[in-house]
């Protein structure tokens, strides 16, 4: 009798190991690296496959086999001078007007946004790099009925998301050395979107002195305001 129990325990152990091994191989995560900008993240290759690649090389779309879930990743130059707050407001209005927003967070150089509507859930995160001149983002859209699968997926994608930091590779010129000084009455100077961004970050109007770091080492004074004037 003892021998039979021992054999049964051995068979059970083998079966458990086989199940565990099967689960490990079934769940496959791969790294996606954007060759143009250099941002990276991990995505579940067992759930999502490449649907299309942007012709400009700045992003990619992944889709599930049933075409119900999508992951969009990409980067774009911040030519409009958005801040994390103003860009969050923009995509809320233009990308997700039919969703009820139930989560939003912003930081100095990032934001996260999520909502639900029409039986679907979305989650988007954007990170600003290169002095706010490059927006790196990913967005996941999936059925509410599959949230038990994709909520966990979104969490891992977010944890592995690394934005582009090589500004020259992104085709952006190095930022000149900048020094912001508070003045009660700013002297005459050119208005600048860069100075405005610094002012909004600091919460008060500023004067920014731009010094060239290479010959002829000249400088330029520009003004920035917290609000438009």
CATH architecture of the largest domain: 3-Layer(aba) Sandwich
The CATH class of the largest domain: Alpha Beta
Q: What is the subunit arrangement here?
A: single chain
Characterize the biggest β-sheet: 7 strands, antiparallel
User: What radius of gyration results from the CA coordinates?
Assistant: 24 Å
Number of helices: 4
Major sheet strand order? 3-4-5-9-8-7-6
The CATH homologous superfamily of the largest domain is named Mog1/PsbP, alpha/beta/alpha sandwich
Distance between the termini: 91 Å
SSE arrangement:
Layout: H1 2-26, E1 29-33, E2 40-44, E3 48-53, E4 59-64, E5 70-77, H2 84-94, E6 100-106, E7 110-117, E8 120-129, E9 134-143, H3 147-160, E10 177-181, E11 190-191, H4 193-202, E12 206-211, E13 219-224
Parallel strand pairs: 11-13
Antiparallel strand pairs: 1-2, 3-4, 4-5, 5-9, 6-7, 7-8, 8-9, 10-12, 12-13
Q: Nutshell version of this structure?
A:
This protein has helices at residues 2-26, 84-94, 147-160, 193-202, and strands at 29-33, 40-44, 48-53, 59-64, 70-77, 100-106, 110-117, 120-129, 134-143, 177-181, 190-191, 206-211, 219-224. With 229 residues, the protein is an alpha+beta fold.
């Amino acid at each position: 009798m003892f021998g039979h129990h021992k054999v049964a325990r051995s068979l059970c152990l083998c079966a458990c190991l086989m199940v565990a091994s099967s689960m490990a191989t079934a769940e496959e995560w791969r790294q996606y690296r954007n060759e143009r900008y250099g941002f990276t993240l991990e995505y579940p290759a067992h759930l999502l496959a490449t649907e299309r690649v942007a012709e400009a090389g700045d992003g990619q779309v992944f889709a599930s086999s049933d075409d119900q879930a999508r992951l969009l990743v990409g980067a774009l130059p911040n030519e409009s001078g958005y801040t994390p707050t103003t860009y969050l407001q923009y995509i809320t209005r233009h990308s997700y007007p039919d969703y009820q927003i139930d989560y939003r967070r912003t930081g100095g150089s990032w934001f996260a946004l999520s909502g639900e509507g029409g039986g679907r859930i979305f989650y988007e995160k954007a990170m600003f790099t290169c002095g706010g001149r490059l927006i790196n983002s990913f967005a996941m859209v999936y059925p509410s009925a599959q949230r038990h699968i994709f909520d966990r997926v979104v969490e891992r994608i977010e944890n592995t998301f690394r934005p582009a930091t090589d500004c020259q590779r992104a085709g952006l010129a190095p930022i000149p050395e900048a020094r912001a000084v508070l003045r009660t009455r700013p002297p005459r100077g050119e208005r600048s979107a860069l100075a405005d961004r610094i002012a909004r970050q600091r919460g008060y109007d500023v004067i920014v002195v731009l010094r060239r770091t290479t010959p002829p080492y000249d400088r330029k004074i520009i003004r920035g305001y917290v609000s438009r004037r």
